[in-house]
């Protein structure tokens, strides 16, 4: 054990005193993470609690300015060392020992020194600075027990009195090693312990200490990253559950189908490499990638490219077995491979999460090199310390092998059996629920229709049937009658049944979404816009059906009701003293004045408009108005002919206000504005009243009798 401790001491910590790790241990960083703080020289963690904002903290009995007076700045170390004293809300904090007994053991590297000797590092404490010069020199025994008397000087020990255990030596060759093992760290200070696997033992834990000064920035960063990974692993670790240990190889050995044999490690590695080479070659030829070449170093390259072979783990051991390299060169090669495996193989291109292991091995390289490349060694090609990097990649392989087995199994099944996507029930998400229902309904209709057809024409008619289904659905949404001449009645009935089922679902979804919008539920903007279009289509379909029903069965009034409406209208016009405007005679003495007045009013009406169409802009021009005045005879004749012949037979378009009510006012055409204004000016600018003094109808509006309302 002493020899093991002496050989492995270079990998252990140089600080035997536990006080050196004060505020830099596991519990301290657990507390720092819980309080969302960072200790100088240590890593910074993500906050354990998100509600750690203290800017809006209220005053309470713990931080009352009238009770607590702190005359110096509260440092982070204070809050971490005494979390319940300097923090208002300490949660998930862990307390660490404030002080441990001082360790005064001084370890020596010289095996020839005796077990007990005076080390020059121990400086005697002088009393010259504590006692005056003229003070008598009194020993501490005399100061405690008093000065010696005369009787004490006469007492002497017998000459034959020997001290106890004088014949025994004070120490032997193992005394120094025993004292060193007494003060040794854990696992070296025990006689026995539990057996553990080699890959479970981290050989270096230098990152659990402060980074030595005067180191490069990359070394500081590597220290912090490795320590952060260690703290997070400790924080997430849980005690192992008691499980029954099962040995698969032992169970397979008792059967007659499996046998065991022993192989040399290098021979087993060569067989694995050979089988992997064969597997990749079969895969390349299976994919018809004949232009690619795979060499025995697992380098995939085109035929024209000839790169040098890269030394991997098996190649390094083969070279060692052949005697081409010694053990130190083998160790350097393994250490270089494990540290630079990302650059040698580029595995991260296939699984980018592998960059975690690449970065961790790089941090371990920084951690080990700064220890090895010191003193007379200097900066060399390598240190041959491959175990830390080997552990990283070994644990990675333990986790990636089950995934690789699953991926390769799926790949082989897909290569030999093909894809079986139809047999897998896909999960219908919220985004695809509508299209999924449409596809399922259409597939069911296609299945029913194709079952009615012979096998010879199924493939030719499936595309045509899909086109008929799409056309029928578009006709339903546009409220157009769908009818295909010559289509069999059975197929037409199936298509109509499909349209009815889809229409019922479409209408129910539209009304359901409108109800959700009315309740102010959370609805996507696209759903709102789509629902507006759906309801508009349904409204227009209902209105068109109502109009067709009105044309077919309407008007929904009896003859007596029609006579009553007409009589009431006539009585209302008589009570308002309605006077119809008479037609103009062929010769009138004020024809020219009426024409000029009508043109001026027309010009004023269009002058207030900001935007004019082509006909209005032509009327608005002064040249056009002047030409009308100059050709007054022809214009007057044309206006009179229009008033006498065309006006009585032209009814203006009816204004549609509500679905079931029609107004009695309609706007006249723009081209008849001149005729209306001329006739209106002739009668002294009389305005037609719609009701008794409450609203004056403009001059270019005409009143239509009620019986006309019901004639579409």
UniProtKB/TrEMBL annotation:
Residues 174-302, 309-557 form the PROCN domain. GO terms for molecular function: pre-mRNA intronic binding; U1 snRNA binding; U2 snRNA binding; U5 snRNA binding; U6 snRNA binding. GO terms for cellular component: catalytic step 2 spliceosome; U5 snRNP. One of its GO terms (biological process) is spliceosomal tri-snRNP complex assembly. This is PROCN domain-containing protein. Residues 616-666 form the Pre-mRNA-processing-splicing factor 8 U5-snRNA-binding domain. Pfam families: PROCN, U5_2-snRNA_bdg.
